[in-house]
Design goal:
A: 361 residues; ABC transporter involved in vitamin B12 uptake, BtuC; 2 strands; 1% strand; B: 333 residues; Rossmann fold; 6-stranded parallel sheet; 12 strands
């Protein structure tokens, strides 16, 4: 059996057709990384605020510690949702999940730590088991929330934006029902001093946890099959499915993983304040997604950077803190944050990241 | 091109930052000489910064700052989110003020940060709130909310002819000042056996939610005669909901706090009474006390930890009298 092939007319034509893509030199590739630009903007803002803040207050260790603690939750959320965005999905229920998980976890912790009377008096006879149970309960609650999202998207076939819009409302309401409209009381202060506000070599422990989680997620995205499949699904859902990527299974794993990480953020939340914050976290999801986009992620999927998401989330924290220290009125703060986000995205927008660093035409 | 862009942005930020740099009062040498005291810095942290209650506090604080040669740094989020307020509070502390005034929107969450401030040598004055542990900080200024709740009960009872069904619309169930207002109202209503409290709803400070809840209450209790709304947002939302149901005047409304809109509603007849706190004095007295702490003119741990600031019940008849005028809240300073 002969296979008909069309032979190239000449050697030069063949060269032109089959030449490998032009790979840019490594300095060019580095400069095109959006992560580099976000890092530069972050450093630039730190330098600027350190210079102009009264008494250079921005550059104090106390301030960096504050920022680290403030950033712990949002960095974790941004790194987590980056995975989902890479797969071409959105999750706007992050804040509601955080609140619900923190309420469940805090309630479990307080319930197991001692009787009602003991706990109200500040005595915690079963502290160890209460805290362990609190950790498990928060992460479990978060994972179940993620599972709920996953089933809505993969089984019910609902668009992830709409699905998580729904679970946002359900989650917030459920949290208020479980909490009875109040923030949970009598969370053991040992949790606060031992973890929530604890520092390791001056760095808040909670922030370290978030960075470690970010590192694990980076590894997951760049070095495992799950990560490859995630980006494939986001890049072209159709092509990925035809290539054999199990879309439903992968998305299920991703949503549950994100939910579990949001649970961790919820644990950080109530162990930091020794209470929950059912009225807050309303802009968390948008802030996390903004961090991902600033860091080089594409909302259409297929292109995302975990370090970029982390640095992008840090950008907002640095900016907000700097403006507060400057004494800027809250109304101006909101305008400034919005403006700088747009500028940051526009700057790094010129750097279009591709896996091999070649120019995108 | 990129460097030029980055430089422009840096300049922009610098410009925005310096131009809109808040209302920190500058200490001029002339003022320092006149006051006779060295200038001290006081940080003043609140939440809900655009609520007339806190705007009026700010007016009082700024007046005290001017008089007493204090460099005032007023900060806080526009929402009631205590996490945002803590961010502002912690950032203020980094600047090492000589004293701090703070409104603890979460008695539990603010405990550790206030302790932390005191440990750093920054005396803290608690403004219109308490912490989950008594005695942390230098002094707390509170309103006798229970008493004001009673005033509201008496006012509403008189307005509805001392008989009928009434309901309450509150902020949240875990904020102590509001708990006391509710408790005081219930206590006050005990003196009127023909009045029954039939409902209590929480709006979490959201106007739309508050209005929806009042609508629902009006449907659920068609014989409702009176409503007590425990803060500005609730009062304004309730007034609009009652008006929207064409029940203005049929359902008597007693609100809390005397914001400009509430006062206008009082004049127009959609609200029948207002229980006003004294935010101007809050701002003034807390700043004054903080300055005294900073200058070591008072002990860091005074004998009396709690100081109560009073309030007033206002109805249409007394609205324009001179005693009532200082209690009216302002929309701007």
């Amino acid at each position: 059996m002969t296979v008909e092939t069309s032979a190239p007319a000449s050697a030069t034509d063949m060269d032109a057709e089959m030449a490998p893509p032009r790979v840019a030199s490594w300095p060019r590739r580095v400069v095109r990384q959006p992560v580099l630009w976000v890092a530069l903007i972050d450093i630039g803002l730190i330098a600027l605020f350190s210079l102009i803040s009264p008494g250079h207050a921005f550059f104090k260790v106390a301030n960096f510690t504050n920022m680290g603690l403030d950033a712990a939750e949002i960095v974790l959320l941004a790194a987590a949702v980056a995975l989902l965005i890479g797969a071409g999905e959105l999750d706007i229920s992050l804040g509601a999940n955080l609140v619900l998980s923190s309420v469940v976890g805090a309630k479990v912790c307080v319930a197991l730590a001692g009787s009602d009377a003991e706990v109200a008096a500040g005595l915690y006879p079963h502290l160890g088991i209460a805290i362990a149970a609190g950790v498990v309960a928060t992460i479990l609650a978060g994972s179940l929330f993620g599972l709920g999202n996953a089933l809505l998207v993969t089984r019910a076939g609902i668009n992830s934006f709409i699905a998580t819009l729904g679970t946002l409302g359900i989650g917030t309401g459920l949290a208020l029902v479980i909490a009875g409209g109040n923030d949970v009381q009598f969370v053991p202060p040992q949790l606060q001093s031992g973890f929530g506000l604890a520092k390791v070599a001056g760095v808040p422990l909670a922030f370290i946890v978030s960075l470690v989680a970010g590192g694990v997620l980076w590894f997951l995205l760049r070095r495992t099959r799950l990560g490859l499949r995630t980006l494939a699904l986001g890049s072209s859902r159709e092509a990925a499915i035809r290539a054999g990527v199990p879309a439903a299974k992968t998305l299920l794993v991703l949503f549950v993983l994100v939910g579990a990480l949001v649970g961790v953020a919820g644990f950080i939340d109530f162990s930091r304040f020794a209470t929950t914050n059912v009225g807050g976290h309303q802009t968390d999801a948008l802030a996390a997604i903004a961090g991902v986009v600033i860091g080089g992620g594409s909302l259409f999927g297929g292109r995302v950077s975990i370090p970029g998401a982390v640095l992008g989330a840090l950008l907002a924290v640095i900016l907000q803190t700097g403006l507060i220290i400057q004494g800027l009125q809250p109304f101006y703060q909101q305008i400034a944050v919005g403006t700088v986000l747009l500028i940051a995205v526009w700057i790094r927008g010129h750097a279009r990241w591709t896996p091999d660093g070649s120019t995108q035409t | 091109m990129r460097t030029k862009l980055l430089a422009t942005i840096a300049a922009l930020l610098l410009g925005v930052g310096l131009a809109a740099c808040g209302d920190d009062s500058d200490d001029s040498p002339a003022a320092a000489a006149k006051a006779g005291d060295d200038p001290v810095s006081v940080s003043f942290t609140v939440a809900l910064t655009n609520d007339p209650f806190f705007i009026t506090q700010r007016c009082g604080a700024e007046d005290a700052a001017r008089k007493l040669n204090v460099k005032l740094s007023f900060q806080g989020p526009t929402s009631a989110d205590f996490q945002q307020e803590l961010k502002a509070f912690n950032s203020e502390l980094v600047k090492q003020p000589d004293a701090a005034v703070v409104v603890p929107f979460s008695p539990t969450a603010f405990l550790a940060p206030v302790r932390n401030a005191v440990a750093q040598g920054i005396p803290v004055v608690l403004n219109n709130g308490t912490l989950s542990q008594e005695g942390v900080g230098s002094k707390q200024f509170v309103t006798n909310e229970t008493q004001l709740g009673k005033l509201a009960a008496e006012g509403l009872a008189k307005a509805i002819g001392e008989r009928g069904e009434v309901a309450m619309l509150a902020f949240r169930s875990d904020v102590p000042p509001h708990q006391k207002r509710i408790a005081g109202f219930r206590e006050g209503m005990k003196a009127f056996p023909n009045i029954k409290i039939v409902d209590l709803q929480y709006s979490n400070g959201e106007a739309a939610k508050a209005a929806a809840e009042v609508n629902a209450m009006l449907q659920a209790h068609p014989d409702l005669k009176g409503l007590f709304a425990t803060d500005t947002t609730n009062s304004q939302a309730a007034a609009s909901a009652i008006k929207g149901n064409d029940k203005a005047g049929a359902v008597k409304l007693v609100g809390y706090d005397a914001s400009p809109q509430e006062v206008a509603a009082l004049r127009a007849g959609t609200i029948q009474g207002l229980v006003a706190q004294d935010p101007y004095r809050y701002g003034y007295e807390t700043t004054k006390y903080a300055a005294q702490l900073a200058r070591k003119q008072v002990p860091a741990k005074p004998a009396e930890f709690t100081q109560e600031l009073g309030g007033k019940y206002i109805d249409k008849a007394t609205l324009d009298s001179p005693e009532v005028k200082p209690f009216l809240y302002r929309g701007s300073c």
